[in-house]
Amino acid sequence: MGDLLIAPAVKPGDEHSYGNGRWGPSVGYDGRLVAYSLTDGTRKWTAELDEKVRGITLDGTGLWTLTDQELTRIDPRTGHRTSNLSIHNARQLDPVQLWAQDGLFACVTADGTDDDPPVLVLG
User: Fold this and answer.
1) Quick one: which of 14, 47, 84, 106 has the most CB atoms within 10 Å?
2) CA distance 63 to 56
3) Residue scoring higher pLDDT (13 or 41)
4) DSSP state for residue 76 in the 8-state scheme
5) Alpha-carbon span 14 to 52, nearest angstrom
6) How many of the other CB atoms lie within 10 Å of CB of 53?
7) With contact defined as beta carbons under 8 Å apart, do 90 and 68 qualify?
8) Beta bridge partners of 56
């Protein structure tokens, strides 16, 4: 937005193993977005999220992120969360193109050839 580059980011320690399921331990991730100035390259903010970022989109004045369990609206000027919408089981949607329109969100998967739906509408 404006003079910012906003992107998902990871750092060492973001990946965690937990449990011991049928095929071994499960893996979870912390997530974050970072914003860098396109003018001088400085980092302007970091928004810590509870899970791996699976998609991001703009809705005109805000930035939305999709994680496994939430759609989170973030103020692109400050990186502060402004609202959350709980969702469930978006884990299979990795990666996605996320689209926002009139309170609905369309998730388009990168590969629609497996058993998961190629498009999922949330709202």
Assistant:
1) 47
2) 7
3) 41
4) T
5) 9
6) 24
7) yes
8) 65
Instruction: Write the CB contacts of 122 (distance below 8 Å, at least 6 apart in sequence).
Output: 71, 85, 87, 90, 104, 105, 106, 107
Show the beta-strand stretches assigned E in the chain.
4-9, 15-21, 24-29, 31-37, 43-49, 55-58, 63-66, 70-74, 81-86, 96-101, 104-109, 119-122
Q: How far is it, in rounded angstroms, from Cα 33 to Cα 67? A: 12
Nearest to 123 by CA among 78, 29, 32, 59: 59
Residues 86-112 have pLDDT tens digits of: 876 555 555 667 767 777 777 677 666
Q: Residue 122: what residue type?
A: L
58 is written with which tokens? 């703009």
Cα separation, 54 vs 61, whole angstroms: 20
**How far apart (Å, rounded) are the C-alpha atoms in residues 82 and 90?**
21
